[in-house]
Amino acid sequence: MIRVFILILFTFSFQLQNSFAQKGEPFVDRLFFGGNFGASFSSEFTSVDISPIIGYRFTEKFQAGPGIIYQYLSFQNLSTNNYGAKIFARYFLLPNIYAQTELENLNLKFFERDPTGKIVGNRRNVQSLFIGGGYRQMIGRLGGIDFQLLYNINQNRFSPYQNPLIRIGFVSGF
After folding, report:
1. If we measure between CA atoms, which residue out of 102, 89, 148 comes closest to residue 129?
2. Architecture of domain 2-173
3. Residues 137, 143 contacting (CB under 8 angstroms)
């Protein structure tokens, strides 16, 4: 399923890129960056999430690109660093409203008790496939804030997210 998603995304994007490039807009003008940053601190729990993206505007309505993910989590005397990568595609249905799909692979550390009762950490790759949409509020000509509502259709007991996933992020052109 994941390989088919990536193959369809890249095939579609290369076809769109050829038609878009013929308009003569420079490559750098079609690039944008953005992502999410989140943090939560308390006496018992700490969470930091940094997830930058770089995107490419294939047409006025279709955008796609990769991103990286870093998460630091600490609870009582246990802590972990989770990391991974993602690829997203979004299509603007209206000037500020878009549909989005995203494929993510995250390497997580799970804490479990072994048969002796000792807490041990085991690492595992977890894939998530998100579908949903968002609203972009432009700030100036090149920047904006994205509000997203996504649903993980590949959720299982190892998924680090609860449905629905709500994100607030930023985007800016070069």
Report:
1. 102
2. Beta Barrel (2.40)
3. no
Q: Return the structure tokens found at 116.
A: 């002796």
Q: Where are the domains of the chain?
A: 2-173
DSSP string, 20-51: HHTTT--GGGGEEEEEEEEEEE-SSEEEEEEE
> If residue 62 lies in a helix (H) or strand (E), which one and from where to where?
strand 62-75
Q: Rounded to whole angstroms, what are the CA distances from 57 to 30, 31, 33, 105, 156?
A: 5, 6, 11, 23, 32
More confident residue, 157 or 126: 126
Task: Give the mean model confidence (pLDDT) for residues 28-51.
Answer: 89
DSSP annotation of 158: T
Q: What average pLDDT is seen over the chain?
A: 86
* pLDDT confidence bin for 79, thresholds 50/70/90: confident
Q: Is there a contact between 106 and 160 (Cβ–Cβ < 8 Å)?
A: yes
Mean pLDDT of 91-104: 96
Phi, psi of 95 (to 5 degrees): -55, -35
The reported pTM is: 0.79
